[in-house]
Specification:
Blueprint lengths: L2 H29 L1 H11 L46 H10 L2 H4 L6 H9 L1 H25 L4 H9 L11 H4 L14 H15 L3 E6 L29 E7 L3 H4 L9 H20 L4 E4 L10 H7 L4 E2 L5 E2 L8 E7 L13 H8 L1 H5 L12 E2 L6 E2 L4 H10 L8 H5 L8 H9 L7 H13 L31
Antiparallel strand pairs: 1-2, 2-6, 3-6, 4-5, 7-8
Helix pairs in contact: 1-18, 2-17, 5-6, 6-15, 9-11
Length: about 475
């Protein structure tokens, strides 16, 4: 069968699926209305609340205890998991290319570990050539034609860089810098965990989870920086015993104006700063600590499964971990340490079954990077089950977006990612308990029926999602020429 016929057949399937969802959606939503309304009356306090958060000190409204499970809800398919090569991450590889100046001289001139990587993955080198020789130059030309449209956004986004944490060196040096001697003896790990969560909240964290660090989630080799050379083997230190995961959401109004005004650094830098403060706090107690964070600091570990292990949520179809509080709208930092702590259990809130039916993120993705498969499968021969994401296609689209170089459309279209009002909050509490999937189908129907989900062409050249008006504080109209 030709590719065109396959695409046609797929879209025929899509339309029929969406028609069924819409026809059955109202009935499904009505079936769960009584339970939704009762829970909503208890949980919801205002239709204007954004996150379900009660204040500025880290209280978490979602009660995870009824949904705790003994094992993480992802599937391990082999006894031994194949670890991640740091150069497999396109964003990290792109950063390395820029650091080496290869974005100007050509990626085919790579040396060392990057050259070896390209020799093993020639298709990746061709994709990187397209990124730096075609996509980025075209984006810069587009930005010139758009003038000052994003002037306020640019000022706002760049301002977050004022407090970016620095990159650490090798763990045996950086993890021990500033550690108090002697260490305080921790008599009650459970109480210490409660304190860590409270303190993280005062630092700005919105959700916090703690887990034992699974060595399988530590990178096999580095993409460079953080003390290691590109391609160098990452040795997990003995003191990376626990992982404290802290999360904050992006600013909601900016996120909902994606991709034209998609915020990025507001979430990444905030998460990194919260993590840096918590790293310092742990060291003041006398224990080694290492920050793994988005933006400048970066990672030595694979974050989504660590989030799942720590009980913050489940990994969804679009690879983000979906949390009960914020859906996929959360950026996280991780602190590895041997401070004695009590760990949290993972949770099962029904994301896997929900994502099997929904597929809205795959439909809206401009890069077609998200799988439409009904079931998740093994990812890149690593022995772990998840839905496939074409990470290079995703990066290419993001880098093509004028000014923001971001997307997050998958996150914003997800029914779990909504400003919380009482009915939406309650529905997310009912979904894990609803074995009929009626409420889940109803929530997807509501998303399709009441929120704008235009054709994907609206998010590419020349429109770039411009029909979505900028949040008022990023709107240049009447302020800047």
């Amino acid at each position: 069968m030709s590719n065109n016929k396959k695409e046609e057949k797929k879209h025929q399937h899509l339309f029929s699926r969406r028609d069924v969802l819409k026809l059955g959606g109202l009935a499904s939503l009505g079936a769960g209305l009584v339970s939704v309304a009762s829970l909503g009356f208890i949980n919801g306090k205002s239709v204007d609340t954004y996150s379900g958060w009660e204040g500025q000190e880290g209280e978490i409204y979602f009660d995870r205890e009824p949904f705790q499970v003994d094992k993480p809800p992802y599937k391990i398919l082999r006894t031994e998991i194949k670890k991640v090569n740091g150069l497999d991450a396109p964003s990290d590889r792109s950063n390395l290319i820029k650091e080496l100046g290869l974005d100007k001289t050509g990626v085919e001139n790579a040396t060392g570990a990057l050259k070896e990587y390209y020799e093993q993955n020639p298709d990746i080198m061709e994709k990187d050539k397209v990124l730096f020789e075609e996509i980025e130059p075209k984006r810069k030309e587009t930005e010139k034609t758009l003038g000052n449209r994003n002037a306020l956004w640019t000022a706002w986004n760049s301002s977050w860089d004022v407090l970016k944490p620095k990159k650490p060196g090798l763990p045996e040096v950086s993890d021990w810098e500033g550690v108090r001697k002697p260490a305080y003896e921790i008599k009650d790990p459970k109480k210490m965990s409660e304190i860590i969560k409270k303190v993280a909240g005062t630092f700005g964290a919105k959700i916090v989870g703690i887990t034992k660090l699974n060595p399988a989630w530590v990178y096999e080799t580095s993409s460079g920086g953080r003390g290691w050379e590109p391609g160098e083997k990452v040795e997990m230190p003995s003191w990376w015993e626990y992982a404290i995961v802290v999360g904050v959401p992006h600013e909601w109004d900016s996120i909902m104006a994606t991709p034209a005004f998609a915020g990025e650094k507001d979430g990444t830098v905030q998460a990194a700063v919260v993590g840096a403060r918590l790293e310092r706090y742990v060291k003041e107690l006398g224990y080694p600590a290492r920050l793994h964070a988005p933006d400048s600091s970066r990672f030595d570990i694979l974050v989504p499964p660590v989030m799942v292990d720590a009980g913050l949520g489940e990994q969804g179809r679009f690879s983000f971990v979906i949390t009960p509080e914020f859906g996929g709208n959360v950026r996280t930092a991780v602190i590895t340490t041997n401070l004695p702590l009590e760990v949290d259990k993972p949770i099962d809130i029904g994301v896997r079954d929900f994502c099997k039916e929904c597929k809205l993120c795959a439909e809206i993705c401009p890069s077609k990077a998200i799988s439409f498969d009904d079931e998740p499968g093994e990812i890149r021969g690593r022995g772990v089950e998840a839905w496939f994401i074409d990470v290079d296609a995703c990066l290419h689209y993001r880098q093509s977006v004028p000014f923001t170089q971001r997307c997050k459309l998958c996150m914003t279209v997800c029914p779990w990612t909504r400003k919380d009002n009482w009915i939406h909050k309650a529905a997310k509490g009912v979904i894990p308990r609803d074995k009929t999937s009626l409420v889940a189908k109803g929530l997807t129907w509501a998303q399709e029926s009441f929120y704008e989900i235009p054709d994907v062409s609206e998010y590419t050249d020349p429109k770039w999602g411009s029909y979505r008006k900028a949040p008022w504080f990023l709107d240049v109209d009447g302020v800047i020429e």
